[in-house]
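Quick review question:
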């Protein structure tokens, strides 16, 4: 099970300030929610794709520092250091910093994050964009696509039968409270527009195959994030289960885990799974299902399961609320729909389904 926890909490030393987020789903995401189950399941034979080798972290970082970062810094009226400072490097991340910006490049260069953090904060305070005036997907989509197809064209490449689809917009909302009157004022600090990959009409779900563009409150681009590998056809094909068998697999996962641990102790794909606890040992919780969507599944370049293949899966999302504390967290079950089921390292659901599937 995967915990979906997007944290947008930003604190400033004004009065009392908190941060929240809300989102707008695209029409393409809504359409895939309605059609993907039948379009993926039912004994269909689908191509399997495997991850190509990355070009290298240093090479990717050099390209971004040479072209993308100076272009964005100039557009944002930021001073650009001739030699950005490499502030940290490890086995997984290399981090660079310049005047008002930070760039992180991960793995073999397939994952990167860039943010003009100082400008985002400054513009949010200057503009005081009301929540009701938050830009919609249609207001930002063309600008974001032009940026991806132009500035990020070397990093975000599409293969044959692949398409970039608009997924959702997420809004970072900051709020100030007047201590004297208790009045709360909200403003849009940033808008993040996310795009996903689609292969032959089938969406690619998960943390990978994703690129997001961050807009400041004035509508200018102030950052980006991507986790984007290139894929090629594998030697095998996969046949998918029918809806009845999927429902049995979903029920098996649900009953095996009983109730999720209370919010705050998530289970993470590709990480160390928290032990399942008997239902009686847990605090009272309420669970609410949020929907089911099917397609290929890309856990991300850093969390790829063994074999480096795009998996075929259905993703069931839900929230769990701790009755005592009111704390609520979002989770998803990623259930394989390949007829040939085998345990995969880093994919807890494959283990839960065996040997009884």
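Suggested answer, residue by residue:
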């Amino acid at each position: 099970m995967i915990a979906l926890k997007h944290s947008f909490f930003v604190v400033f030393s004004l009065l009392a300030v908190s941060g929240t987020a809300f989102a707008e789903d695209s029409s393409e995401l809504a359409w895939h929610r309605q059609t993907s189950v039948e379009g993926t399941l039912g004994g269909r034979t689908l191509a399997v794709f495997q991850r190509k080798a990355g070009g290298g972290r240093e090479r990717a970082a050099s390209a971004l520092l040479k072209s993308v970062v100076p272009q964005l810094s100039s557009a944002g009226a930021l001073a650009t250091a001739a030699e950005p400072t490499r502030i940290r490097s490890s086995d997984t991340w290399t981090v660079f910093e310049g005047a008002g910006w930070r760039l992180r490049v991960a793995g073999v260069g397939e994952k990167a994050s860039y943010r003009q953090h100082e400008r985002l904060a400054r513009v949010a305070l200057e503009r005081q964009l009301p929540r009701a005036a938050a830009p919609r997907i249609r207001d930002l989509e063309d600008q974001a696509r032009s940026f991806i197809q132009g500035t990020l064209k070397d990093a975000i490449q599409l293969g044959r039968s692949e398409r970039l689809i608009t997924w959702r917009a997420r809004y970072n909302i900051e709020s100030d409270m007047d201590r004297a009157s208790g009045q709360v004022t909200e403003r849009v600090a940033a808008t993040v527009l996310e795009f996903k990959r689609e292969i032959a009409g089938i969406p690619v779900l998960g943390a990978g195959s994703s690129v997001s563009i961050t807009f400041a409150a004035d509508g200018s681009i102030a950052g980006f994030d991507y986790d984007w590998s290139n894929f090629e056809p594998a030697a095998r094909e996969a046949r998918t289960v029918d809806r009845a068998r999927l429902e049995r697999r979903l029920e098996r996962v649900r009953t095996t885990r009983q109730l999720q641990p209370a919010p705050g102790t998530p289970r993470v794909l590709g990480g160390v799974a928290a032990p399942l606890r008997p239902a009686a040992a847990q605090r009272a919780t309420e669970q609410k299902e949020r929907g089911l969507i099917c397609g290929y599944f890309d856990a991300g370049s850093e969390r790829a399961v063994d074999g480096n293949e795009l998996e075929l899966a259905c993703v069931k999302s839900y929230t769990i609320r701790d009755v005592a504390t009111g704390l609520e967290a979002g989770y998803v079950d990623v259930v394989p729909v390949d007829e040939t089921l085998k345990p995969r390292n880093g994919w807890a659901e494959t283990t839960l389904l065996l040997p009884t599937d």
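Why it works: Residues 57 and 109 are 4 Å apart (CA to CA). Confidence is low (pLDDT under 50) at residues 1-18, 259-281.
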